[in-house]
Model the fold of this input.
Amino acid sequence: MCDRSMLLWLASVQPALLLLLLLPLPSGVYCLVDSNSSTPALYYVTIGDGTSTEFEFPENTKGIIVVSSRYSSAEEKDGSKLFVQSLDPDVLTIINVSEAETIGFVKSYIVSIKSGLAGTAPLLIRLLDVTKVEPFTVEERKDYIIKVSPTDDDPGSTSLAHFSQNPLLYFLLPLVFINKCAFGCKVELAVLRGLLKQPHPVILGVIGQFLLMPLYGYTLSKVFSLPKALSLGLIITCSTPGGGGGYLYSLLLGGDVTLAISMTLISTVVATGMMPLSSTIYTHILNVHETLHVPFTKILVTLLFIAIPISTGMLIKYKLPRLSKFLLLLIRPLSFLLIIGGLFMAYQMGAAILCNVRKEIIVAGVAVPVFGLLIGYLMAYCLKLPVPLCKTVSIEIGVQNSLLALAVLQLSFRRIEADFASQAPFIVALSSTSEMLLLVILHLLYKNLRPHPVSEGNDLKS
Done:
């Protein structure tokens, strides 16, 4: 094998093979081509003149990279082989690596690439000596980075902007307000006073929603090797406060409605601080460079949209008892109508986004509500809370405000990346609703089919 210092000296007097210039080719294909340079190489393998390790490439484009090697086997002229891998395949894909001509001591390799979503893709470049029975690695480099730059958004691409213009929304909003007023009629002041003395359920809810659930989302993203955008979408979804449907499910499953409403309000307030903190931590861990925008205005609107009708319902309960009884009769039919309408709107919003959804995110999305329900019930059970409180804590942790997660992603990313990341909250929302409806059906069947105990008075009469 040639002495490496000799090779470096020889390379210094040879024209350096590659100075990266981005030149367009027909049909939108781009090529990183070679030029002349007198800069000496510090490695056997180089891209360009060796002075830069970061290069830009257009989004959604095919092209080639020319890599030079100054390594020459002492036994064979063609005794080396180049292996190139993209460490983020969703940003950049390596199609193939082929050998080109050899000029003097410099051998060229053509690496065919295809860019995807905008982002950063580190390259793993490994030079192998294949003259032996068992090839060995001559040199390995991980310092080259391809930055895929975004192109202008396609005006016709999918977007969630039409959500606020959906006519069904204007039909459902008054029903939502009336339904929340009806829930306000079920609030018990004695239970609210009890929470001030024993806030254990609320504390469990905060721990589960803002510590355990985001960590679980991150774990799932690693288990299923999700792309960064999907991983972040899943983690942000797991970091959101309890959804507004939590107290509906608490009512239908025999939980504590007053506790459910209180936990939803408190977790929404806590989210103004915990969501930015969680987002900062996990964007750093995932090495995502985007700055996430937490929609504080939307959180405030959510708070008001819960607090105002609930307070109105509480006032109606004590000032207009007859109207209160009428509203209580409307809770179940209105709630089921709103669930169906919400599912229909979610399908309209997410049909195009979910058409190419990955199987891994489907499995992860289904697992999120299941874990939240189980961990919430387990924590409450360990504190020996009554069964209705255990159910409520379980539901509040297991049912996330996915619309809030959608708002974060849509405000923080370009349209293409936002729609891709939005697969996570859509899948979690659909899974959560489906799983909770299944639990409600099983609960109703159990109540109707289980044998009812017969009192002693009935026995005597018989």
